[in-house]
Amino acid sequence: MLNAGQVIASALNTFKAGKVHLIEKDAYTEKLIEHFSRLDAEDRRMRFGVSLGQERIEHYVKDAIKHDDHVFAIFNEEGQIVGALHMAKEYHDKQAYELGLSVNAEYRKLGYGKALFEKGVSWAKTLGAKRIYTYCLSENRAMQHLSRSQNLRVMLEHGDYTGELQLEDRTTSEITKDLIDFATTEQMMIFDRMSERYVTALLGQYAAFAKSAELFQGIFKSEK
To answer: Which helix (H) or strand (E) element contains residue 71?
Structure first.
């Protein structure tokens, strides 16, 4: 039987499951590391260009994702991140972002990659970006197909592929919708983090109570 903390956590996970959320890297560092760690060696190579080991995955999440980058995630009902999109500032083009996408194997063909990519393009427009880029290996057909489906101009460069899209300015109504979506998502994620802290505190109190109960039981048994 679930305790109160587990019921709250389960309800929150169910609420956010399968939806695209803009997340704070610092608050979800461990979940992002877990997401990338569940990619097998070939999937890591498709995502990063090389098959990163555990240490380099941790370095990527903690150091390569900068504070002015943007990260979108899709969760499952257990609260795990099963799809992530890193929207990074382009170092050679200040009006552009680079999109890097990954979805865990068992959650593919559910439209998660497309949903994340579309949200990244939409958010880049809202931020006033003029271009977005993607980079992938020549054998990464899935990313090339997704890029083309989102009207990126896909080109072969130095043996690998680059996707580029010139962004049109957003209308006022589109910007308003994105800002409302962001505010709603951010409020939910803040509530989520507060709830996680509450659940942790609640379980800590329960553990302390259980320990005290065991102590008293020991005392009573020793008196008999």
So the answer is: strand 70-75
pLDDT above 80: residue 86: yes
Residue 86: closest CA among 105, 66, 104, 106: 66
According to DSSP, the residues that pair with 162 across neighbouring strands are: 135, 155
pTM value is 0.73
Q: Cβ neighbours of residue 65 under 8 Å, at least 6 residues apart? A: 25, 32, 71, 86, 88
Residue 205, Cβ neighbours under 10 Å: how many?
11
How crowded is the C-beta side of 6, counted as CA atoms within 13 Å? 4
According to DSSP, the residues that pair with 97 across neighbouring strands are: 89, 132
- The rounded distance, in Å, linking the Cα atoms of 143 and 203 is 43
The DSSP 8-state label assigned to residue 107 in this structure reads G
Strand pairing category for 96-103 and 131-136: parallel
